[in-house]
UniProtKB/TrEMBL annotation:
This is Thymidylate kinase. Phosphorylation of dTMP to form dTDP in both de novo and salvage pathways of dTTP synthesis. ATP binds at G13, I14, D15, G16, A17, G18, K19, S20. HAMAP family: Thymidylate_kinase. CDD domains: TMPK. Residues 11-197 form the Thymidylate kinase-like domain. NCBIfam families: DTMP_kinase. Belongs to the thymidylate kinase family. GO terms for molecular function: ATP binding; dTMP kinase activity. GO terms for biological process: dTDP biosynthetic process; dTTP biosynthetic process; dUDP biosynthetic process. It is an enzyme of class 2 (transferase). One of its GO terms (cellular component) is cytosol. It comes from Azoarcus indigens.
Length: 207
């Protein structure tokens, strides 16, 4: 007998891209179709992962330590939540996954691509999200949004414009290499327009 298998949907983009409220809209839409949906985030998603998140967002560290902590948190997230949920037929909507490590650690910070690929093959062999929504916008627009929140910036949000230019370019490069999985959304528009495109995309794919 075929076992129901949930779908894995991820959201990506530079800090301030506006993922948060759009993720909520996507989850609402999927739940409205009667699906069981789990919303999560990376780094994080489990008690251990959230503790690792605190460290990587606020503690200065070596680049390879940073990359391995991202993947350690991810391994725990997969083992404790994502894989059991998908196996039980639940859908998982996650704020960031390995594309973020590619964009931030490889693109932004210069981590050796072969080391990223080795970690990815170790931590989730044969598994990629079913669909990834990449929120794309100029770093200066995103930075103004982050500044507008009035919240204290973390270690990544304090990076300079050229860092986010590299992160953005790495995301777009990965999207070009996986155009069936990664859909680029122009995030430099009002929230309502983005929401409309996002829901149309989900409708086209999953209705
Ligand atoms: N399309 C948009 N246009 C203008 N401001 C936005 C838009 N989307 C989100 N924002 C604002 O930008 C800030 C960052 O949004 P958020 O959803 O937290 O981004 P992310 O989760 O991608 O870092 C918030 O203050 C939010 O209200
Ligand atoms: C998952 C992941 C996140 N990050 C970074 C990107 C973000 O700056 C930060 C946390 O992401 P996020 O939860 O999107 O932060 P916020 O809700 O404040 O926008 O971690 C990496 O550098 N590598 C990774 O693999």
């Amino acid at each position: 007998m075929a076992v129901a298998q949930g779908r894995f949907i991820t959201f990506e983009g530079i800090d301030g891209a506006g993922k948060s409220s759009q993720i909520a809209a996507a989850v609402d839409w999927l739940q409205g179709r009667g699906l069981a949906v789990e919303q999560s985030r990376e780094p994080g998603g489990t008690p251990l992962g959230e503790r690792l998140r605190e460290l990587v967002l606020h503690e200065a560290m070596d680049l390879e330590t940073e990359a391995m902590l991202m993947f350690a948190a991810r391994r725990e997230h997969l083992a404790a939540r994502i894989l059991p949920a998908l196996a039980a037929g639940r859908w998982v909507v996650c704020d960031r996954f390995s594309d973020a490590t590619y964009a931030y650690q490889v693109g932004g910070r210069g981590l050796d691509k072969a080391k990223f690929e080795a970690l990815e093959a170790w931590v989730h062999p044969g598994l990629q999200p079913d669909l990834t929504l990449l929120f794309d916008l100029p770093p200066e627009v995103a930075a103004a949004r982050v500044a507008g929140t009035g919240e204290a910036p973390d270690r990544f949000e304090r990076e300079r414009r050229d860092f986010f230019e590299r992160v953005r370019a790495a995301y777009l490069e990965r999207a070009a290499a996986s155009s069936g999985r990664i859909r680029v959304i122009d995030a430099n528009r009002p929230p309502a327009a983005i929401r409309e495109e996002l829901l149309a995309l989900l409708q086209e794919r999953y209705a």
